[in-house]
Amino acid sequence: MLCREIAMPRKAKSSRPASCDVCNGTDLVRRITTYPVHLSGPLEGKQIHVGRVALHECQACGHLMPTPAGQAKVDRNVAMGIRLFLGQLH
Ligand SMILES: [Zn+2]
Q: Which alpha helices (DSSP H) does the chain contain, by range?
C-alpha cells in the first residue's frame, strides 16, 4: 500500500543485528528511545518522531536499528503520521 512505500520499511531481520547497517560496527547497545523517521515521496522533508522505540544503537556511528517489535511500532506510528500529514483523518 501507499503508506508502506512512503515509510520504506527495512527488510525483515533476525531479532538482534550482528552489525551496523552503516559502518558494520558490532558495538550495538539495546535502548528504548525516540526514533526519527524521515519521510520520502510526497512527504519529502517531513519527519516523524516515534517515542519509546526498542532498538539497537550503534556506538560507533549512532545509527539506530529498531527491533522487530520496535519496527512494528514505528510502522504503526508512521502510518498514522502520514494520514495526519495528508489530512485524511476526517
Ligand atoms: Zn554504525
A: 2-7, 68-86
